[in-house]
Amino acid sequence: MRRSVATLVVASAVALLATACVPGTNPTPSPTPTVQPTPLFATEEEALAAARDAYSRYLEVAAEVVNEGGRQPENLEEVLTGTQLELETQAANDLASAGAYIEGSARLVSMDVQSFDNTTVQTYACVDYSELVLHRANGSVESLAVGDPVVPLELGFRVVAETLLLASQSNWDGASFC
Q1: What is the 3-state secondary structure (H, E, C) of 20-54?
Q2: What is the rounded CA–CA span in Å between residue 63 and residue 122?
Q3: pTM for this model (two decimals)
C-alpha cells in the first residue's frame, strides 16, 4: 500500500510540474493579444479605390441576377452584407415570383468618400439608371429611369472577411450633387 501511495504522490508531482502548476502559487495568465484587422486602406484615395471596386463588382453581380429574372439571388452574398443583402435578396425573389426581368445595368458615374476607418467606408455616389428596362410577365416593358436617370446616393461599405462589401444604399435627400 505504501508503494502505491508513493507512486501516486510522485505521479501527481510529475503531473503538476508538467503543467507548470506548483502548489501554493497563483500563476497570472498572460493576456490574450487583441487582434486588429489589417486595414484594407490607409488613405482616402485607397478607401475610394476600394469602394469603387466593391460597387463596380456589386453592379455586375446585381445586373446578372436581375437580367436573369431574379434567379440565383445567393450570388448577391459575394457583394452585399447585412440589411442590404436581405433587401436585395427579397427584391430578387419578388422579381422571380412576378416572372419579370430587368434588361441592362446601372453605371457608376462618380463617387466621393464621406468618411472611412479600418472597417467601413461611407461615400456619396452618382449612379446612372438610364439603361434599365423592366420586362413584365404580361409582355409590357417600361423604363426604370424616371425623371433624371442619374441618381445621387449615399453608400455604406463594411469589411467582411477582408473584403469590402456594400452594406447600405439610400437615395440622397438633399439637392442633387450629381
Answers
A1: CCCCCCCCCCCCCCCCCCCCCCCCHHHHHHHHHHH
A2: 23
A3: 0.77
* Virtual torsion, Cα 79, 153, 147, 130, nearest 10 deg: -30
Structural element, H or E, at residue 127: strand 120-128
- Kindly report, residue by residue over 145-169, the tens digit of the pLDDT: 778 899 999 999 999 999 999 999 9
Nearest residue to 177 (alpha-carbon basis) of 111, 107, 132? 111
Q: What number does CATH give the domain 43-171?
A: 3.10.450.50
Looking at the DSSP bridge assignments, the partners of residue 126 are 110, 152
Measured CA to CA, the distance from residue 174 to residue 168 in angstroms comes to: 18
- Nine cell digits for residue 154: 449615399
- What are the backbone angles phi and psi of residue 151, rounded to the nearest 5°? -110, 130
All three cell numbers of 59, joined, read 453592379
